[in-house]
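Quick start: read one record
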Amino acid sequence: MKPALLILAAGMGSRYGGLKQMDQLGPNGETIMDYSVYDAVQAGFGKVVFVIRKTFAQQFKDMVIPKYSKVVELEFVEQELDKLPEGFVLNPERVKPWGTGHAMLMAKDVIDTPFAVINADDFYGRDAFRVLAEFFKGIDNSSWNFSMAGFSLGKTLSESGGVSRGICTTDTNGYLTTVVEHHNIKRENEGVWTDTQDGTSRKKVDENAYCSMNFWGFTPQIFRYSEEMFKEFLSQNINEPKKEFYIPFIVNRLIETGKASVKVLPTSAQWFGVTFKEDRPLVVERFAALAKDGIYPSPLF
């Protein structure tokens, strides 16, 4: 039973100024997603599911199907604002997506194996896919043993501005105890600093702390639990036009209630991505170097 890879590709890239997930950054026009799919297939993943938006669905499929269909099974699901559980009606003022937790739920009918979740616009590196694939070898569909690729916070920053990260704490056995979203994290004043939770000041954080880059390892058990949590979220926030339902909310609740464990899997991989349009030249340069050094074939597919 090969694991699946769920790629969250429905974001609109407002800060980037375009659809990051479709931007051609590699030496032969590769997208960041291309590298993730390549690494996943090499690690033993057998299916890739994309969460996309209806507005660019055909353009997206035209771009990826010719590249991937010969090497891995593909599925596409759409995340739209009105895809809500029965009994809930969309507030017409809502324009912001419901968040990563909602995006993951869009795949509940097409994934029936252990699966990893990643962002479309993050480069995670080959080792991150390897450690998740190894973890899945001891996991079956009924398991509540989940995982997360743990990246060192200092290796995930942008030179172009502050970023948001889920900063993690773990117990002595390497299991996640909390993941708390922090905003406007950047290197300054001889360290790494973030906004406080109330947003009124800044505080220094450990750059070696693990952070979540939204690279999770789950089983299908997560879907039913997440759906009930989403209904609870909607009951409280259906008329809040900017509130979002994040995967870390789900994970924290699972840990707090003792329903699941989440093993943090250290990875030596170097993350990079295109949070801002100013990040683009550096990412292009890095992909060119990876191809030149023979780390990846060029073209990939």
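The chain has seven helices and 13 strands.
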